[in-house]
Amino acid sequence: MQQAISLANMAINKKNWSAARYALSRARVLADALPANVAVSERERLAAARKRFAARNTPAAKKAKQAKATATKRAGGKKPTPKKSTAKSTAKQPKPTPMRDLGDRFINRAALGYGPTNETR
Prior knowledge:
By secondary structure, the protein is an all-alpha fold. The relative contact order is 0.08.
């Protein structure tokens, strides 16, 4: 019964509704097979899981999620801005990228059809 309830909770967390429905039905069958005074804590966990499953697509559930998101944003507060030190910023200047040395290469303009050139090599 504990395993079925934990599987239902995992499926609800992952929003795998068909697996959650199946696990809840298995847990309900097991809970109904036991006497009422046995496994009271598991019955409470099962009832909580059923409530979470029932509220999956309701407007109330969406409002609760939005309220939680805004509350967590307020609770965190502003993050402090990092302090800039002037000594490190002058020492950490990026190095320029090295230029490739192509040597003394000349383009044969006459071969390209631009007319004769005076440079010969």
